[in-house]
Amino acid sequence: MRERKIHMSKARSYLIGFAFGTFLTGTAVLLNAPKSGKELRTDMKEKGEEFKASLTKFKSETTDLKNKIVNLSKEGKETFTTLSSEVKDSMGEWKRSVDPNLKQLQKDLEELQQKLEEAADQMNKNNTKES
């Protein structure tokens, strides 16, 4: 507990020293400035206005960028939804067009398999007769 108080006391001392040093430095700069107080205030006001204008421009550009990202996201979602729907429709159409041919192929394969089995049976019968 005692160490904590000492640590806080040191931090407070440093903070007071920093604030006092900053004040003295600022005063020294103003007293030794090559410009008059009026010129210095005018320059500071101009720089402040330039900084404010820069911040306003940055805010505007950031808002524009955000809006563009939101719009791009919406467009991407719409495009993906449309594309997904079109692919689904195309797959359904392809399946409908292939389905009759597939059924015919299955029927032809069954007939071919049946004929091969009949031919194999006939060959077996011929081989047994000759033996």
What would you say this structure looks like, in words?
This protein is mainly α and 131 residues long. The chain has one domain (33-130). The chain is 95% helix and 0% strand.
Question: How is the secondary structure organized here?
Answer:
Elements: H1 2-32, H2 37-130
What structural keywords apply?
single chain, 131 residues, mainly alpha, 0% strand, rod-shaped
Q: Secondary-structure element order, as H and E?
A: HH
Oligomer: single chain
- Level of helix content? over 70%
Structural class: mainly alpha
The proportion of strand residues reads under 5%
Number of helices: 2
InterPro entries: Desiccation-related_membrane (IPR052928), RRF_sf (IPR036191), YtxH (IPR024623)
Keywords: Coiled coil, Membrane, Transmembrane, Transmembrane helix
Transmembrane segments: 12-31
Protein name: YtxH domain-containing protein
Quick recap of the structure?
By secondary structure, the protein is mostly helical.
